[in-house]
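pasting for the record
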Amino acid sequence: MYLRTKIENYDLYNGKTPEEVLQKHDDNHRSWYFNIFSIQKNKKFKINPFEDVCIGIYVHPSNLHKYTVSMVETSTDNSALMLMVAGAVLFWNAYKFSKNTLFYYLISIMLGITASIIILVYFISKFLLKGKMMYITILTGWTMSFYLLQMLWENTQLIIVQYREWVAWYILITSFISFVIAYRFGPITNVRTKRLIQWFLQIIGLITMYYSSYLREATAFFCLSILLLYNYPTVLTQKGRTYWMNMFPERRKLLTEDQYREEGIRETNKALKELKEYCVSPKCNPWKTTLILKDPIRFARFMEGESHLSDGESQKHDAEITGIIEECEYTDDEDDML
């Protein structure tokens, strides 16, 4: 949904029913009530397509400007799809990432930049929050802190655009310092620490996949599936293949007569070759084999390269093949006459 307006002094409420939206509006306008999570300032937001949604927009009376709200329906959310894929990749490759030196330096640099921002905010608050401002901050507690963080987050893009050179130098310097510190201590070598990093990355991947879509049932099923595939890949693959073969059995391809004869010749030659290799290998006992054979001299000739069939057997085989072919041709002629 898109909110088009030129004013900045407005409140946006999101709920499941009109009564919930009105309740948030009334609570927000009470003098003693303060909740930064009930108000939104975004002009572009997504709604859950699988449940009832009610949007409330309150424009202060001092503003005479109008606003328009439009809705665009998308069949596929590319950002959510990329988030799902990124979570799956992070979960599946967490083991490799936990042992990768480049990944270690990249994470160290990102943590260094984030920690430097927190330290910078802390020192600024030490200098600015004095006197009455300090007491106000103490009285409001974490609520005011969250409010300030939200204001900084909403103005992040504006800060980057207006002070991009300062931001670029700040990121460059903090990245260099973080890299130097990480290089000084070196990559992690402890096995348990690497395993904890792997589990932490996998948890982040599962959370990313779960919240990548509003259809929580589908994302939960996907998370469960990838967990089972990661921990029991062989068993699930074999069961899936067996189930698929039972549901969709493969059709047997019948051979023609020529294909049958060619396969018979090929398999026979293969078996004879394997027999020769076995007989010359240390696994074969030649004296024991000789006692079993009826014609050891014929077997010796076969091992020396002669044919495994005698002349009489070859002639008998050729005669049988010729008889079978003539019988098939005679049968085909009778069928044609009929």
